Amino acid sequence: MRYNQAWKRRCLQQRLCELRKQKNRSQTELGHLAELHYTHIGRFERGTSRPSGDTLKRLADALGVTSDYLLDGATDEAAKARFEDRELLKQFQEVEQLPDEDKNVVKKLLAAFLTQKYLQALAR
Hints:
Number of strands: 0
Low-confidence stretches: none
Strand content: under 5%
């Protein structure tokens, strides 16, 4: 378990540093975008400190990636999804807990609603 945590921390360090450099940002600039002091960025990149959940999200937002990507390198569509509407996110999380049959009903309702909106937009 400890090996896995150390490996993830090293990967976080590498991804953070590589992304910052790809975006041609200094530690100071990234710190400003993420509302952190530049010394924290250096500590995260060296692995002498780990960001909290909130700090990780601010770093991810500043770099245009997800927290999942910074932590695990996840690039699948599910990891890229971002919900600005927290109430909608909560509702989707609740739907996720339903039995498959109920989830399928919600999916069909959502698909029908979106199709209707799409057709209304075409009719304009």
